[in-house]
């Protein structure tokens, strides 16, 4: 029991100081996060008189757990349903914010004569606002239930997704040194594929498993199961070379569809609070106050740029997406800071050894300053709107008013399902099923080298091994292939119905329609076959054997067609049920 | 973000397997703890095919956090109030259990030809029952609110305290190789002193501080403050060379007196469940199944000894303390297993390198087996009592019945405060105040070498340094010394009142009474002075200076007497208030 004293001492120093600081900053009405960072600086290696931390590595490891629990909680608050509600506006606002801030950051970096990589990472650091800070500030001000707050949360969700895409892209750029459009497309495509398949498979499996566990009423069992899923999924994600932050966020988003969401949130909160405190303290540990003095000038410039840039970009985006000026101003003022995501991006740069050492402390300093201003900015939004309204020349006000009216007139009258709505829905279904098929074949290709070790014993021939693996992938993906075929056929029928009008085609109408609805799916399936072949080129059997496999598969398909349709329908219903279920209060 | 994959992988393996196992064992209606240990064995280094854990050290460290949180939760459930209610019975039962099991364990070890140290540790391993298992089993069987369960919890509390004393004594014996009565007394005296002072000072400070923090309604703040106190205190305890388990238990017991107990329990539960799962898995990690086969015979013998020995010793103790036969049987059957404390003691032996390697796996195996039987034994208690009642010859039954009646007749009729009650109370108060005085001087002696570094600058003379430190200690302990004096005086008055009766002493009655009540305190204070001098011999000033210090102190005392009385009264009231406060629901 007497070993590991160093570790306990570190933890004691971190937690005791965090405890004092959380109370102190609460009294000063400042975000506790700032206090944690300050505590980290105090006990850190750069400030005299004592070197209080002995085993910085272990504390860093615990801090990483903080990232996992922070992103997991963020995922739990993520909701596909909520995202759809505020969807369009949130996407426009978030995109305009990220693009503008990336550009501003890059330009500032270049103006200071930093390297292109430093400038790029600076742009990425400035792009994403801090969900933690915003949620906390809005809760403190009692504004969490207002409609503009809902919109802000929507923007934050979109930012989280785009931020994760940015993490992946930045890793790619950092490793190859450049951003080729092709690589970016492939990277984003893979990410999208991975996210789609994880979400679909996860939502099919995880909430059901948790429902079963939750029946026992034992909090311990539920918690350990939740953590089991969380870490297992994180491990899978890390093995696929994505960041653990992405994994934690995705599995959180999957569990957000569970009926027991509120119980899970309740159980995870203490873990999140404990380890995120450690995480923020470790940020302070890495902060060298001397650097802040050396870089006082860039810090000041960047802070002003973040506040002004985010108010303008996000506020304008919100306004352009059709909200009134007051809401736009409140949204812009609320998101005008950077936070945990910026630290993650900054530490990514450090880990990959592509950014200079000064970037991290600058990010922390700018985050601290902007966080400091956040509550005041939110409170200042309404007075500022009024003052702007008075100061604005009537003509300008008129133009703004007309823009709003014009947008309103563009919106379709709501009614029954439109052709556009139906089409969109079918296309979405086809895409999801295609994603699953692609994932199955990609997974088989990735897994084949490991699997071949086991098969080699009773099947030494390499081509035959390919046949076995490829056939297995084909059988697994069969229900989804059938679904793709059927959905494509209904899409073709629908489009034929619209595009081929009796007025033009005369008595050939129905013949042409049938031809289209028969031909399109067959051609599509050929395309699917080519796609699958390309994805699974590593395990594609030689042509002769491939033909044989396809023939057998065709026979099998004829026998199993009904079964495939049933299986797929069951899964689809299960998915919809999970989505439609409201979490228990 | 990509470093530390090994750690995440370990955690993922541990948590994922723990998740599966918790569900499986719940279905099999077996304690989850067994499942965790089994999971540990599976992923452990002794079982093929894979070596699944990479960084065993980090997982072990996290497991140690499990011990901290387990003991802290145990402390939170500890209640001085509850202990007083079932006090006498619990103490008799726990003592008879621990003494008998220590003896049985030692004898078994000797019979198998093990070394005396192994045999001693075996006895200690068998002595303490498992709070976790019992609480869980009683909750599962729906018996948690029954009166025998309350008694069991009382016994467990006494066992926890005695167990901690045993930990301290065992460390001492292991390091010196022998148990001298003197060292044992000093060790236990120091432990008692430390526990008393910690509890008094802690209960004065911590619940008040937590009340202040809790006003904010922020769970995060409360949790971080609680953890801050917990780890800071653990650090202090570890620095004083006690086990971290003791520290966690004590600070838990201190927080149990907080008004916000239930909120704290709620916040700590997820941390405890997570890390205790890891702790139990690490126990499995250390378990070599081959050892179990080699030692099948001792394991079987010890398992039977634990079950039979605990039923007899604890049941008999309960009966002798005046409970009926059915309650005694139920208590005995409930405590018939060993658990977490046994692992802590076994790992202490390993850490100190005084026990053989086979002791740990034996402890784990016996714990697993006895845990397995616990629910069945609890359920079997009532039928067994009935059968025993029928099978018992009437004469024996009569003797048992008469014993109960005799005990009942011994009990004093309840009424107003008795002289005995009053005396006991004053003596307790004197003891607590003396403990604080002793702690102040001991603390000053310990701290002097560190302090002298700072003083040396402006006070190079070593004797003068002693004067400063000793005087400081005297001033700090003055309110408590005054209290000791005043309480001794009232005790002397009370005793004089009783012992000196007018019938005997005649007209000298009041004179003798006054003489006693004046003399006794003065003599006592002389004794206190000698005690303090002995405790602080390291910093006691030379005689000449000492006399000067004492004269100044006497002058100071004359001036500050009222202030000392007031300060002490304030503290006493504050302490009583905290005790009397019921936790919020």
From TrEMBL, chains A, B:
Keywords: Membrane, Transmembrane, Transmembrane helix, Transport. It is a multi-pass membrane protein. PANTHER family: SODIUM/HYDROGEN EXCHANGER FAMILY/TRKA DOMAIN PROTEIN, SODIUM_GLUTAMATE SYMPORTER. It comes from Paraburkholderia franconis. GO terms for cellular component: membrane. GO terms for biological process: proton transmembrane transport. It comes from the Bacteria. Gene3D superfamilies: 1.20.1530.20. Coiled coil: none annotated. It holds the Pfam family Na_H_Exchanger. This is Cation/H(+) antiporter. It is found in: Membrane. Its main location: membrane. One of its GO terms (molecular function) is antiporter activity. Residues 16-377 form the Cation/H+ exchanger transmembrane domain. Belongs to the monovalent cation:proton antiporter 2 (CPA2) transporter (TC 2.A.37) family. The chain crosses the membrane at residues 6-25, 32-53, 59-76, 83-104, 119-139, 151-173, 179-209, 221-238, 274-293, 299-321, 358-378, 426-447, 467-485, 519-539, 545-565.
